[in-house]
Amino acid sequence: QVQLVESGGGSVQSGGSLRLSCAASGYTVSSYCMGWFRQAPGKQREGVVVIDIDGSTTYADSVKGRFSISRDNAKNTLYLHMNSLKPEDTAMYFCAATSSARLPVFATFAPSWYNYWGQGTQVTVSS
Question: Are 17 and 79 spatial neighbours (Cβ–Cβ below 8 Å)?
């Protein structure tokens, strides 16, 4: 049974930083394409960043240069490092996992391609 558990969310002031963690079980982080998505109240879930098994990454334009994704294979954990946070980053952040090593370009930020999802961790950024 695959389980993804996010942690590390919280409340920070604009310009602050947070590191989100996604601990996986029943799933090998190093073997599949994974990503982070976020959803703000009243908005659609949107892709933040995706990483494939080669370490190749794709970032949403809105977070490029501020966020960074990484994996610790020994801990079977995926991370999202968030810097220079803005109020518009406020959202529930979800760890998502596919059953593919790589995804077609068009599927990178398509939620339907991700088979497993964590429960989410809230990030709130105040002005």
Answer: no
Distance CA 40, CA 88 (A): 9
Residue 11 in tokens:
């409340």
Residue 67's DSSP bridge partners are 82
Residue 83 — pLDDT band, cuts 50, 70, 90?
Answer: very high
pLDDT in tens, 21-66: 999 999 999 999 999 999 999 999 999 999 999 999 999 999 999 9
- Exposure string of 9-41, with b = 16+ CB inside 10 Å and e = fewer, is beebeeeeebebbbbbeebebeebbbbbbbeee
Report DSSP state, residue 56. -
Give the residue among 84, 9, 11, 89 at the shortest CA–CA distance from 48.
89
